[in-house]
Design a protein that fits this description.
Largest sheet: 4 strands, antiparallel
Strand order of the largest sheet: 1-2-4-3
Number of strands: 4
Length: 170
Amino acid sequence: MGLDDLSKEELKDLVKIYAKNIIALDGVWFQSNEKKNGIDQAMQHDKNAWTKFTITEARRIKKFIGLEEHPGLEGLKKALSIRFSAQGNPVVRLYNEGDFLIYRVDDCRVQSARKKKGMPFHPCKSVGIIEHAYFAKTIDDRIKTESVSCFPDITDESSACIWKFYIPQK
């Protein structure tokens, strides 16, 4: 059986499986590094990996959906809605709030997995800033990114993390 033999619904399911697999691979890789080298060194490698991966992912999505050079927040919204993390996490919301685009991961596979294993939460804010800012900048270099709530700096207990995107007014 090949991809050509799958229905549209089966292909959608497969995309979700692949997205979950990327999250699982990232988690397994990180935990192996964390166990061998400690959290600080694992975090540095994580930042390096996410910088490169995020740019590649954003470029490919931008090309795939045919975004222009400066597609603005609407272009970013389209790109974020199909990236692996939006497909692989159980509850993700993406919406406009005034001049901002808000990206909420209300249920995070990474933090849920660590909690089940009795591990401390992943201090993902520093990596998340890199991941989300580089993704947004690659889609449109005018877009700025802010963390609203992300471990260890949780300001909204109803969500694992919340990110805000905007284009500064001149």
